[in-house]
Amino acid sequence: MKVEYFDTDVVAAINELSATLLSYVGALALLLLVGTGIYYMMAQGNPRLQARAKQSFSYILLGLIVVLLSYSILGVIKKIAAD
Asked: Does the pLDDT of residue 4 top 70, yes or no?
């Protein structure tokens, strides 16, 4: 199925933009995970602060999973539109 509304330049721009955004999100997630690890170590056995760091870690991983799933869904949509 051909989609006549999209120019190839627009599709290439979307591909480049999504790849760029994915790399920025990956770098940000890495920084946040390192920061959360440092926060966990600085808790020094305080259960409340350790629980907060673990919760932050969970949220960061959940956000990263959502981003990766959205990138995968975008790839499926591009394949469908290309046929």
From this structure: no
